[in-house]
Amino acid sequence: MKNLKLLLCIVLSTIALIACNNDDDDSGSGPGKSKPYVIGLDLGGTNSVFGIVDAYGNILETTTIKTGNYENVEDYVDACVMALLPMIDKVGGLAKIEAMGIGAPAANYYTGTIEYAANLRWAKDRSVPLAKMFSEKLNGLPVALTNDANAAALGEMLYGVARGMKDFIVITLGTGIGSGIVVNGQMLYGHDGLAGELGHVIIVRGEEGRPCGCGRTGCLECYCSATGVAWTAREWLATTDRPSLLRELNPEEITSKDVFIAAEKGDELAIEIYEYTGSLLGEACADFAAFSSPEAFIFFGGLTKAGELLMKPVRESYNEHALTMYQNKPQFLISGLDDANAAVLGASAIGWEIDK
């Protein structure tokens, strides 16, 4: 009975302390911050998705523009700001915005620049000071950016299947391939802010390697991204006479979604394309395990909608090619978060961390 009374006292004291703290807090602001919202931008090769996010991870407003519609970065930033301003007005103006975080391909967290991004036409052959450009257009708002896959990993760690994990690799399977590597609970940035470009590990060497947008040949993303799946389909249709539902389509317009639809209908060629893609991806993961021994590989992005068509060959190939000490250890998981939301939330988390 005494123990029960003691437990009741502890519970009541805890509730009182929480209530007291809640009364003292500015309930609308982030941790240690004075303003209630941040902007998160998931900048992809195809779409740019914006969200205004509160301190609890709620996305209050969102909009999207097409990244590829803009030849130069100045026009792109202007279009982004035009899309953002109505959202900002809805939450009370810039006075309510603490900062902006951006997740983008080839982004340098330390310098706020995008460095030679293969899938961005206005950053393909140069370094772009994107954080500075957005800050200037938004009246000096603090802006930081990181690799888009790093942003996805942050979102996964805060809200997704990586909660509680300290060592994992997120691999984003979209237009290209990105990766966010977490070691001992910390995002891996490297000495220059550019670590984690696993999509540009070369898996096919020599003249037979596919040319990559990065300027090299045989990169993983040329084979295992959504673009790579469509590429494989076109190659196989051109070099074999095997029957396939895909032959009903214009080869130049085939997408990974078309391959998925055909595979769902039992098309043998389409199923083999996923087996080939998964086998290459699993073999690459076997190599990645050797440098960080992750608890999990977490796959994120549109290509993951293929489910076991892709994941089964990934797991089998991993265990076939991994060193014995790494076999059957990591989990192979598909993100349970909405693609855009996870990346936007991850990008927004960077905003709360900016020291002004």
Low-confidence stretches: 1-28
How large a portion of the residues is in β-strands, by DSSP E?
15-25%
Q: What gross morphology would you assign? A: globular
Class computed from helices, strands and strand pairing: alpha/beta
Characterize the biggest β-sheet. 5 strands, mixed
Order of helices and strands: HEEEHEEEEHEHEEEHHHHEHEH
Mean pLDDT: 88
Structure description:
By secondary structure, the protein is an alpha/beta fold. Helix content is 40%, strand content 19%. The protein has ten helices and 13 strands. It has a five-stranded mixed sheet. A five-stranded mixed sheet has the order 11-10-9-12-13, sandwiched between helices. The longest helix has 25 residues. The relative contact order is 0.13.
